[in-house]
Amino acid sequence: MRSARRKVPFRLMNPTVLALGSSPDDEVPVRVYYLNPKQKRDRTVRLTYETGTIGEQYGIQQTDWKDAPVLDGRNTRQFIKGRTYDLYYSGAKLHMVVLQADGASYWVVNTLSNELSNETMLAIAKGLKPLPGKVGRR
Fold it and tell me: Which end of the chain is flanked by fewer CB atoms within 10 Å, N or C?
């Protein structure tokens, strides 16, 4: 995470809560790239975690793209301890939790089959803490 911090112009968040039994992806646990590569803008950092179930991964996406299309259509908004969380459901299952802070967006995204419970998804999002140190450059 510290090497990724130097590559993005926004403060990264470090997860302090993870799903029980999960671990960073063996192949690419942290990835830094552009969401809009042709324009070389909207940097993002993707943290990927394996759940322990074959083929099931969840992730934490961090970006300065404030109006990304994926952020359209939230189902509800919750205010918890001074933070605002946008919640996106797939049926009764919480698929994505989004926190926007200091000009960046932080998305906790459930597995493809929404394996993580709604409570776990919220706990991961609430456990995001700013990574100490200087913010990188554009």
Answer: C
Tokens 């990835």 sit on residue: 31
Backbone φ, ψ for residue 12 (5° rounding): -85, 155
Distance CA 74, CA 89 (A): 8
137 belongs to a structural domain: no
The DSSP code for 133 is S
Residue showing tokens 């991964």: 57
99: nearest Cα among 72, 117, 120, 79: 79
CATH number of the domain enclosing 118: 3.30.200.100
This model's pTM is above 0.85 = yes
Among the ranges given (29-33, 35-39, 83-87, 132-136), the one the predictor scored with the smallest mean pLDDT? 35-39
